[in-house]
Design brief:
- The structure holds 2 protein chains of 2 kinds.
- Chain A is built from 6 helices and 16 strands.
- Chain A is of the alpha+beta class.
- In chain A, the strands form 3 sheets. Chain A has a 7-stranded antiparallel β-sheet with strand order 4-3-7-1-2-6-5.
- In chain B, strands 3-4-7-8-9-10-15-16 form an 8-stranded parallel β-barrel, surrounded by 6 helices.
- Chain B starts with a strand and ends in an 8-residue tail after the last helix.
- In chain B, strand 12 and strand 13 form a beta hairpin.
- Classes of the chains: A alpha+beta, B alpha/beta.
């Protein structure tokens, strides 16, 4: 057991989520547990299939969705060459994996906490809900583009209060932003906590409303990474003092008043 | 097999070093292996004052390689001396500082700051960074400047060995190597990245904010081998081979053409324990191919008559 390590482990299962109605875009990846001492929701791993030889070169970062002593579960959206090849892996294929990496979301069991997920951004919140001792204090707000069955929403909404909104049309997006604003206002009024994960424009919107209402809020960033350990300096963002900081080691979770998006 | 190697004032326990900019200050990789197992660690490039580096995006993946334009983001030499260096196991692994500056005088000043640091085994002079506006590659393409910068560093470096890191983005790398040797370099390291570019036809933008970036990774290995071969044939000072090394076989290829040591760069991103494993694999492969010793194998390339 170790705090953080790099190992070669086997894929246990790769299955599409919500396959019945939509093209295969979202996948649940199950892997052998990498023998960590522990992990925290919001942390991530780097994964590089052994079969990649020298092309593609980089590993890919993924939020830890869930993990127990035997299985590590990741939620993967097929968006490019890397994720296309990762979601085509078969049980028994091996990957290099290093982690758990980065910091984690704030967890305050007695504080009303709003979880804002933009699409694939729901991934770390599954682990968050599973780790939370008072899930009755959690509300999950999911903005999604594909039908709800493509996301692990049901796994979470059975434990917490869940709201979901489809952003299939441009008009819907404005509606969702308005709804999200109301949610953030509500949690600001009860001195709550707002946690968000999703595309950068979504994070910017959360930051704007968090500043407007003065609520404590964190955003998880998903910048492109080569190493995941703070060395390549390819994933930096600007902190509150306009200094470049690595998203992989200083984040991926940032307080909204300490990051420039 | 005895893997120890001594050259240009450095004594390394094996020829595996990590290349500047790909291994942080070394500490980032401590969870994944024993830093003292390595022959040497070349730290991320340092300047006199902290530098924020280039805007994002800074990196792009390319076939068997990658582009980067980080722009020497670093916390400055004083921060390195007070924070990273004391935390590194420098008594048991050679820690080499990599120097970046805008002119010869500044290079000299930077060398002077590091000369008194017991934990620094050598200075590597970056006259070849393609990603900064001043200095960097401008020096690397001008033999006179290479000589001048090397002299300035050497003059202020005290007893620290000086390695000059050369750019491949030149018409004749041998001329540059000779200029560094003339300036007093104890050894040379090559190659730095090849100048390159990537664009996106959909949004019609460059993939890197700096537009021009440095290409590294296995894609550049043949260019690197050619450069090392040419330089080894032409100058008397030792050479450290760098460029696309991603296996023990790659590393031995550089040693075969005459490199005393090698640096692993982009392959550190394949997995963070890559360089640690390479130390073992290198020794095993040397034995497997029937080499008598590292010294016997080095430079034993059989050229056509």
């Amino acid at each position: 057991m170790s705090l953080r390590n790099c190992q070669c482990i086997r894929i246990l299962d790769v299955s599409p989520v919500g396959q019945l109605k939509k093209p295969d875009e979202f996948f649940e990846l199950k892997l052998e547990y990498p023998n960590w001492d522990g992990w925290k929701p919001g942390q991530f791993v780097m994964i590089r299939p052994t079969g990649w030889e020298l092309d593609l070169l980089w590993a890919r970062p993924f939020s830890i969705c869930s993990a127990d002593g035997e299985t590590l579960t990741l939620f993967v959206q097929k968006v490019g060459r890397g994720t296309s090849r990762i979601t085509a892996l078969k049980p028994g294929d091996t990957v290099s994996i290093w982690g758990p990496l980065g910091n984690s979301f704030a967890m305050e069991p007695d504080t009303p906490t709003l979880l804002l997920a933009g699409g694939i951004g729901i991934a770390p919140f599954r682990g968050y809900v599973e780790h939370h001792s008072h899930p009755e204090n959690l509300r999950l707000f999911l903005a999604h583009r594909l039908p709800l069955e493509c996301y692990p929403f049901g796994q979470l909404s059975s434990k917490v209060e869940g709201l979901c909104m489809l952003d299939g049309q441009p008009d819907d997006l404005q509606y969702i932003i308005a709804a999200m604003k109301e949610q953030i206002r509500e949690f600001a009024e009860k001195d709550g906590l707002v946690l968000a994960c999703g595309p950068t424009p979504f994070m910017r919107t959360v930051q704007t409303f968090a500043n407007e209402f003065g609520v404590r809020a964190q955003v998880s960033l998903e910048n492109r990474m080569a190493c995941g350990v703070g060395a390549c300096l390819g994933c930096v963002t600007k902190d509150g003092n306009d200094h470049h900081v690595q998203v992989c080691t200083k984040g991926p979770v940032f307080w909204t008043d300490k990051v420039k998006l | 097999m005895d893997m120890k190697v001594s050259f240009g004032g450095l004594n390394l326990k094996n020829p595996v070093m990590t290349a500047s900019g790909t291994f942080g200050f070394g500490l980032e990789f401590a969870p994944y292996g024993d830093l003292t197992k390595l022959g040497g660690i070349v730290a991320k490039g340092l300047s006199l004052k902290p530098r924020e580096g280039n805007p994002m995006p800074r990196i792009a993946e390319t076939p068997c390689g990658m582009l980067n334009a980080i722009g020497i983001q670093n916390p400055g030499v004083e921060d390195f001396i007070t924070k990273a260096l004391p935390a590194l196991p420098w008594k048991d692994v050679a820690v080499i500082a990599n120097l970046y500056a805008c002119d010869a005088a500044e290079f000299g000043e930077l060398a002077g700051v590091l000369a008194g640091e017991e934990g620094v085994a050598a200075l590597e002079v970056n006259v070849s960074c393609p990603n900064v506006k001043e200095g960097g590659i401008a020096f690397g393409q001008d033999p006179k400047q290479i000589c001048k910068v090397t002299e300035a560093v050497k003059k202020n470096a005290g007893n620290k060995p000086v390695i000059v890191k050369l750019s491949p983005n030149v018409t004749d790398i041998v001329t540059c190597a000779r200029a560094a040797a003339e300036g007093g370099a104890d050894s040379l390291s090559l190659i730095n990245t090849l100048s390159g570019m990537a664009v996106d036809i959909r949004n019609r933008q460059p993939r890197i904010a700096n537009v021009i970036a440095g290409l590294s990774g296995p894609a550049i290995k043949p260019v690197a081998l050619r450069c090392v071969h040419q330089v080894v044939q032409a100058v008397d000072i030792p050479v450290v081979g760098i460029g696309g090394i991603a296996s023990a076989e790659d590393a031995l290829e550089f040693i075969l053409v005459g490199a005393h040591a090698i640096q692993v760069g982009t392959a550190n991103f394949l997995r963070p324990d890559f360089s640690f494993d390479l130390v073992d694999e290198l020794e095993k492969l040397l034995e497997d191919i029937g080499a008598e010793s590292l010294d016997e194998f080095r430079g034993s390339l059989k050229l056509p008559l």
